[in-house]
């Protein structure tokens, strides 16, 4: 009889252990499912956010880029973009105190008084039949 009771008690303990093991597995599976649901919800919210951003970008592109309210910009009012390493030309300076009507400074005097005798060295007065400018072009 004692053996029978021992066997019954061992069977009962095995059933309890088995039941505990099943409950632990179920808890682990529930936790795993909850984590997966959370990840899925996070991914869905990121996807919705990306869709919203895409719609905003599409609207901006339809609206003519960065111009506001679909109004086209004047080409001359937009500053050119600079690229890395690009050398920019200096902007023309405005002259102080004078009306800028497009006239540049000119030498006022072309008189004979300021004749430079050294300039004669550069002027070819000979009657040679060699065209110097043509020779220079050929070079």
Structure explained in plain terms:
- With about 140 residues, this protein is mainly α.
- About 50% of the residues lie in helices and about 0% in strands.
- It has helices at about 1-60, 130-139.
- It starts with a helix and ends with a helix.
- The model has no long low-confidence stretch (mean pLDDT about 80).
The proportion of residues in beta strands is under 5%
Q: What global shape is seen?
A: rod-shaped
Secondary-structure content class: mainly alpha
Count of alpha/pi helices: 2
Low-confidence stretches: none
Write a concise keyword list for the protein shown above:
139 residues, mainly alpha
Give a nutshell description of this structure.
The chain is mostly helical and 139 residues long. Helix content is 49%, strand content 0%.
Task: Give the arrangement of secondary structure elements.
Layout lengths: L1 H61 L69 H7 L1
